[in-house]
Amino acid sequence: MSTKAFSIEDGNLQNKTLISSRTVLYNDIDMTFANKPSGDVYKKSDAAAVKQAIKNLLLTSETEKPFYPSFGGGLNAFLFSLSEDFDEFEIEERIANAIGNYEPRARVKQVFVSYNEDSYNINVTVVFQILSTQETAQVEVALARLR
Questions:
Q1: Is the whole model's pTM more than 0.85, yes or no?
Q2: Which residues in 104-134 belong to E strands, given as ranges?
Q3: Environment class of 91 (CB within 10 Å of its CB; exposed 0-12, middle 13-18, buried 19+)
Q4: For residues 126 and 58, is the Cβ–Cβ distance under 8 A?
Q5: What topology is assigned to 25-144 in CATH?
Q6: How far apart are CA 69 and CA 84, in angstroms?
Q7: What's the Cα-to-Cα distance from 49 to each of 8, 55, 56, 82, 130, rounded to whole Å?
Q8: Would residue 11 be called left, alpha or beta, if left means φ above 0 and alpha means ψ between -120 and 50 degrees?
Q9: pLDDT digit string (tens) for the chain, length 147 residues
Q10: How far is CA 45 from CA 23, 33, 51, 53, 72, in A?
């Protein structure tokens, strides 16, 4: 709680307690584009909306979004380097930078990367905090080459 006088016109705020709270709700369209019986599309809200946005961000390749050449996680670039030069720390850093730069609703807490050498795929789990609710959620992304 802050009790400061911001200007002379505000008066003396030293004796008053200012309490302010704002609930931010996040809404997004469900990317399956399934429609309700009423004809409207389903929506995702709060944690589900942020999870969907992070997954889309990580699976978007750089230069894929018009007018935003650096937008995206660019994880698909690692699909063609799944050999002995695999570097999980580079993936963790790229994920943290992408979410930090392009998803203001979330803060990355941890990133887990596991590489399956036999099937040439990468499983990524991102644990993040939703800033408006302080809720912790996670997104799992699987990257695999198609043969």
A1: no
A2: 106-116, 121-130
A3: buried
A4: yes
A5: Nuclear Transport Factor 2; Chain: A, (3.10.450)
A6: 29
A7: 43, 10, 11, 31, 11
A8: left
A9: 444 444 445 555 555 555 555 566 788 888 888 888 888 888 888 888 999 999 999 988 888 888 988 898 888 777 766 555 667 888 899 999 999 999 999 999 999 988 877 777 888 999 999 988 888 999 999 888 766
A10: 13, 15, 10, 11, 22
Q: Which residue has the tokens 């998803």?
A: 103
Question: By CB neighbour count within 10 A (0-12 exposed, 13-18 middle, 19+ buried), where does 92 fall?
Answer: middle
85-94 LR contacts (CB < 8 Å, sep 24+): 86/115, 88/113, 88/115, 91/122, 91/124
Q: Enter the tokens of residue 23.
A: 């609930």
C-alpha closest to that of 61 among 78, 44, 39, 49: 78
Instruction: Give the pair of three-digit tokens for residue 24.
Output: 């931010």
